[in-house]
Design goal:
CATH topology of the largest domain: f41 fragment of flagellin, N-terminal domain
Oligomer: single chain
CATH superfamily of the largest domain: f41 fragment of flagellin, N-terminal domain
Strand content: under 5%
CATH class of the largest domain: Mainly Alpha
Number of helices: 12
Order of helices and strands: HHHHEEHHHEEHHHHH
Structural class: mainly alpha
Distance between the termini: 30 Å
Number of domains: 2
Number of strands: 4
Strand order of the largest sheet: 1-2
Length: 336
Amino acid sequence: MSYVSVGDMAQSFSFNRKSYQLKTNANRLGNELASGRVSDLSKHFSGDFTVISGIESSLKTLESYKVSQKEAAQFSDSMQISLGVVQDQTTKAASTLLLTGSAASQTQVNNIATDVRQSFDTVVATLNTQIGGRSLFAGAATDKPAVASASTMLADLQVAIAGQTTAGGVASAVDDWFNLAGGGFETSGYLGSTSSISAFNIAAGQQVDMSVTAADPTFRETLKNLALAALVSEGTLTGDLAGQAELLERAGNGLLSIGEAQTNMRANLGTAEARIETALVQTTAEISALEITRTGLLEVDPYSAASELEQVQTQLETLYALTSRMSRMSLVDFLK
């Protein structure tokens, strides 16, 4: 009758445990050699995760700033493009209007007024530009258009100038509609918020303010002068060719006078764009440096790991030889 002694059972248990440990180490070392990174962080850092935790925390903070920087860059780039369109349309309209002379025919006046009406439509549409579902020039009310449609504003202006029979009277009424506190533009023309959009956080202690709205005086003057000429295309002062020509001339001079203000607006935005770009470059560089440092802390020494794996394999072979002698088992069974 055969039997297994307590000593045999203890020895078998010891061999199995040792076998399990060696196989686990072999798998770990194999995975580390394949991935190039340590798998047992606690052992690798001796339980002190201060450094690696600090790096991870810094990376998360920098990544959040990078997201904000990219959002700010997209917002400012879109604003800059829009400002370019507004200025281009202003320059084009001013050049066209200033060609109007006292000797202009009714057909010429009508054609010029119609061209400027198209520029007015374009500028209004541009001020209502949205990026990612957010209005650029509506202040904090990013879910709304910045201004009423061109046709709506012209309809309101026609009511405001009703009864005016001279170019001076029409121009004065239009100016009041756009510029008087509580006037037509503030009550029905501008649809955005009087509160500015929140500044973008682009770095620790650094913010970029892009609070330009369609209610800005420069935009008001642009819209006012374009509208003044566009009203002629709507029939204002019909029958008074000289009066219509005067309105076009007033509008042209007004548009010509705001070119510098538009340029300054774009320059200020350009400064903000430069700050955003600088912050983005710096953040990207810091992230790269931290990732390199993190990789260095987590990477495996391939020569050390290969040497250790070879030792483990030798130990496994030795353990197999001992175990197979005792149980006459096959290597295939042993490795299962």
